[in-house]
């Protein structure tokens, strides 16, 4: 089951370790990938004399300098389906290497893909959630490129006819970042399969290939270049995470690779209509890293413009290094012609009906934007609204508490205050505690009616969260009625 690689570049072998079977690619000295430290040193040598801190500070004042940033994001969402996109293999994060693979997802000759219907359902759900036009007929295409963790030598994706296009997403920026409402365009949403995973050795002499992830279904969301700051881009990514979690199509965990954002950044003088040369940034594992990576890249490009070296900004893929807080060159960026797209001959067109789309539309939950507007109409502050709507479990708990007669503001204060502090300390989610919405509403009513004081209410809350029970029972058991 070894991979076939270009002769003279890499030699594949396979071996077993305590964690499972790996396919390993040996790297001759002249063909080794440049290590992170070496690459960072080589690409940033000319800028070493400049103060990165100063450049970052300048980036925050880019409009005053006469420059503006143009930012677009490509987001890959790994779907929570039982099986892969085109075969019956399961995928479980953390499984032993190469333990959930078959000839189809390994790209063996003679195998044929069969489309997982659930992937189409998830794609339509997300397209509707992002206010897109759903394509009644779409098709799959082959995207050709070579990489050791891509066993077929091509990726099944969608090119000219994606399943959804021309949408938008609405979001509210956090109050601490100035607040305000933003609307960002969505160019397209398309279905595709994931590649495997390469684990590079510390020495850089070989890489281990795990194909468990090969063939896992993805939805790629391509935004319009509507963002101008790192904060906007990070909040856009966070909103997509909220949406896929609300829909239940993905867990959206960035640390597991279930949601991955590749950011395209360019700068141009204010007033110029043409875009500058865009640079793609990868390897960001949190939304705060997205913010910092964009800020650094904006400052780097502005610095080159100011020094008359704008020609050194080339279309390339750069990696974000969290330890040095810098981006560095990974590879030159391919163009569409390099991928040699052509229609996938082994898969038929995806044809949808109006009844199918209507049925999915009726099953859609209340989405984050609608929930925020509903909470805002209750008279809650924007800070309250953003906190409650950020997590679907928290929002459901809050709504259930109101259904039992609790005051909206009081319920919000308890959830954002003592309950949130307890969850943070214990590293729990609200649905993992023993507190119920009914008992929180009873606790609020007991304080409001003067049966107990607010201080005693805090003691009872801890008891209810950790051990369960009822407010009335705890009051009677510990004789907590105030005189």
Q: Could you say which overall geometry the principal axes of the C-alpha atoms support?
A: globular
Cα radius of gyration in angstroms: 26 Å
Number of domains: 2
> How would you characterize the largest beta sheet?
9 strands, mixed
Structural class: alpha+beta
Helical stretch count? 15
Number of E-state strands: 18
Measured by DSSP, the beta-strand proportion falls in 15-25%
Helical content class: 25-40%
Task: Indicate the mean pLDDT.
Answer: 87
With strands numbered from the N-terminus, the spatial order across the biggest sheet is 4-8-9-12-3-13-14-15-16
**Unreliably modeled segments:** 1-13, 28-59
Give the N-to-C terminal Cα separation: 77 Å
Short description:
The protein is α+β, with helices and mostly antiparallel strands and 483 residues long. It contains 15 helices and 18 strands. It has 2 domains: 11-355, no CATH class; 366-478, no CATH class.
Provide structural commentary.
It is a single chain. The chain is α+β, with helices and mostly antiparallel strands and 483 residues long. It folds into 2 domains: 11-355, no CATH class; 366-478, no CATH class. It has 15 helices and 18 strands. α13 runs antiparallel to α14 (454-467). The longest helix is centred in the middle third of the chain and has 20 residues, at 287-306. It starts with 10 loop residues before the first strand and ends in a 5-residue tail after the last helix. Mean pLDDT is 87; it is low at 1-13 and 28-59. Heterotrimer of A, B and C subunits. Subunit of the heterotrimeric GatCAB amidotransferase (AdT) complex, composed of A, B and C subunits. Its EC number is 6.3.5.-. It is found in: Mitochondrion; Plastid, Chloroplast.
């Amino acid at each position: 089951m070894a991979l076939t690689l270009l002769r003279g570049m890499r030699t594949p072998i396979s071996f077993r370790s305590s964690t499972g079977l790996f396919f390993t690619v040996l790297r001759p000295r002249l063909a080794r990938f440049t290590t992170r430290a070496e690459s960072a040193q080589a690409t940033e040598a000319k800028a070493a004399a400049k103060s990165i801190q100063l450049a970052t500070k300048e980036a925050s004042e880019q409009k005053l300098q006469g420059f503006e940033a143009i930012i677009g994001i490509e987001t890959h969402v790994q779907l929570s389906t039982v099986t892969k996109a085109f075969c019956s293999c399961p995928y479980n994060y953390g499984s032993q290497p190469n333990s959930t693979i078959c000839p189809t997802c390994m790209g063996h000759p003679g195998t044929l893909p069969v489309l997982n219907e659930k992937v189409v359902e998830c794609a339509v759900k997300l397209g509707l959630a992002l206010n897109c036009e759903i394509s009644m007929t779409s098709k799959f295409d082959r995207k050709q490129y070579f990489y050791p963790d891509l066993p077929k030598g091509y990726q099944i994706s969608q090119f000219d006819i994606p399943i959804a296009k021309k949408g938008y997403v609405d979001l509210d920026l956090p109050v601490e970042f100035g607040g305000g409402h933003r609307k960002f365009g969505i160019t397209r949403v398309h279905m595709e399969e994931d590649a495997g995973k390469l684990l590079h050795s510390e020495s850089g002499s070989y890489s281990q290939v795990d194909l468990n992830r090969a063939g896992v279904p993805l939805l790629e969301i391509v935004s319009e270049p509507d963002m101008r700051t790192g904060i906007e881009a990070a909040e856009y990514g966070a909103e997509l995470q909220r949406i896929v979690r609300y829909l239940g199509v993905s867990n959206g965990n960035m640390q597991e690779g279930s949601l991955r954002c590749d950011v395209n950044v360019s700068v141009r003088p204010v007033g110029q209509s043409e875009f500058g040369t865009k640079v793609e940034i990868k390897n960001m594992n949190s939304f705060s890293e997205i913010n910092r990576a964009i800020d650094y890249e904006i400052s780097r490009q502005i610095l080159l413009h100011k020094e008359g070296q704008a020609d050194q900004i080339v279309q390339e893929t750069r990696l974000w290094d969290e330890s040095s807080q810098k981006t560095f060159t990974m590879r030159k960026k391919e163009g569409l012609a390099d991928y040699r797209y052509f229609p996938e001959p082994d898969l038929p067109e995806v044809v949808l009906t109006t009844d199918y789309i209507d049925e999915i539309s009726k099953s859609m939950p209340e989405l984050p934007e609608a929930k925020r507007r509903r909470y805002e109409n209750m008279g809650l502050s924007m800070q309250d609204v953003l906190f409650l709507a950020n997590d679907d479990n928290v929002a459901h708990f809050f709504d259930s508490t109101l259904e039992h007669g609790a005051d909206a503001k009081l319920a919000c204060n308890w959830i954002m205050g003592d309950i949130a502090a307890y969850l943070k300390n214990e590293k729990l989610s609200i649905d993992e505690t023993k507190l119920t919405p009914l008992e929180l509403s009873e606790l609020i009513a007991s304080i409001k009616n003067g049966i107990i004081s607010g201080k005693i209410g805090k003691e009872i809350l801890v008891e209810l969260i950790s051990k369960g029970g009822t407010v009335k029972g705890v009051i009677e058991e510990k004789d907590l009625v105030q005189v």
